[in-house]
Amino acid sequence: MTINWAQVIFNSAITGSLYLIGAVGLTLTYGLSKFPNFAHAEFITLGAFIGYFVAEQLGLGLPLALLVAFLVTGLVGFLCYRGIFQPLAKRGASIIHLMVASIALGFIFRHGIGAIWTWKPLYFTGIGSAFDFGPLRITHLWLWLIFTALALSLAMHFFLMYTKMGKAIRASSSNPGLALASGINVDRVIWITWFIGAGLAAVAGIFRGADTQVWPMTGWDIILPIFAVAILGGIGNFYGTIAAAFIIGLAENIGVVGLIAVGASTTYRIGIAFLILIVTLIVKPQGLAMLFRRA
User: Fold this and answer.
1) Non-local CB neighbours of 190 within 8 Å, separated by 6+ positions
2) Where are the domains of the chain?
3) In this structure, are residues 48 and 208 in contact, taking their beta carbons and an 8 Å threshold?
4) What is the predicted pLDDT for the residue at 295?
5) How many whole angstroms separate alpha carbon 194 and alpha carbon 81?
6) Separation of alpha carbons 73 and 244, rounded Å
7) pLDDT (tens digit, 9 = 90+) per residue, 166-186?
8) What is the C-alpha separation between 146 and 13, in angstroms, rounded?
């Protein structure tokens, strides 16, 4: 079997870019709120459906779809935290209570989306054709995805390092008590982080839906690898998340080559992320956080 390693590496960049966009918001909200939000999967799904509505049904194009989905889903994420998770946390809910509440919220969202739109798969059409560049098979959507991930990385770096709100997010994630004592409005910081996190999940949902299909399980199809990225990168660590996204993306695509070589189904690729997750939790629970400045 001849292996096109250039295509494998390029596919790894595509997978890593998708996981990066989906995991940034999850790791930041996880770092601040201290519980795993499984409804993040439905933020991804909601973004995919909003993007489909704007780009396909209204015919307004992918860039505007990304913006609208980011803003609308970001608002939904903020309202979910402000109306559900924050009141529960203030009443002494444990991490288990909050996690179960997020699963219940995700279930409601998932079936609500299915009832409002449809459970039948929907497909983006106006996203550009594929073309060959040397040994690579490329689509315009994949180029958009990689560009968006790179732009996001740069924008989040400058936001976290050089803006007042970004520094407040880092401080609140590292030591909420000290941040509060220093005059930082931790609640407002968490609200903004949930808005950004849900908005970025929506962006990931559009790219996932445009590359495959849009249906009520779009977010759930990739939420577990995204959790693996967040844990491998170190909870709350933006730079670790960048590295982890591309590590898991590379591992998955090399794993696909191995699965094909032994005649196994490529659907088992998700098990690679699980394997990395389990090994990380056993060997190095803090993930890659020790290799990067906390952000």
Assistant:
1) 29, 32, 33, 81, 86, 172
2) 18-222
3) yes
4) 47
5) 7
6) 25
7) 999 988 888 888 888 888 899
8) 7
> At residue 24, what are phi and psi to the nearest 5 degrees?
-60, -50
Q: CA-CA distance, 151 to 157, in Å (whole number)?
A: 10
Q: Does the pLDDT at position 283 exceed 90?
A: no
Query: Which candidate, 20, 21, 35, places its Cα nearest to that of 81?
Result: 35
Report residue 275 CA to chain centroid gap. 19
pLDDT at 289 over 70: no
The SS3 of residue 214 is strand
Give CA 40 to chain center in angstroms. Answer: 8
HSE-up of residue 99 (Cα within 13 Å, Cβ side): 7
Q: Residues 6 or more apart from 294 whose CB is under 8 A from it?
A: 170, 173, 174, 234, 236, 237
pTM: 0.93
Q: Please state, in angstroms and rounded to a whole number, the distance separating the CA atoms of residues 66 and 50.
A: 9
Q: What is the per-residue pLDDT across 86-138, written as a single tens digit (0 to 9) for each?
A: 999 999 999 999 999 999 999 999 999 999 998 999 999 877 778 888 899 99
Position of tokens 């870019």? 17
Using CA atoms, how far apart are residues 162 and 231, in angstroms rounded to an integer?
Answer: 25
Q: Is the pLDDT of residue 287 over 90?
A: no
R_g over Cα of the chain: 19
> E strands, the chain, where?
130-133, 136-139
Report pLDDT for 58.
93
b/e per residue 184-201 (b: at least 16 CB within 10 A): bebeebbbbbbbbbbbbb
Q: Where are the alpha helices (DSSP H) in 125-219?
A: 140-162, 164-174, 176-181, 186-211
Dig out the tokens for 117 from the structure: 């739109």
Rounded to the nearest angstrom, the gap between the alpha carbon of residue 129 and the centroid of all alpha carbons in its chain is 25
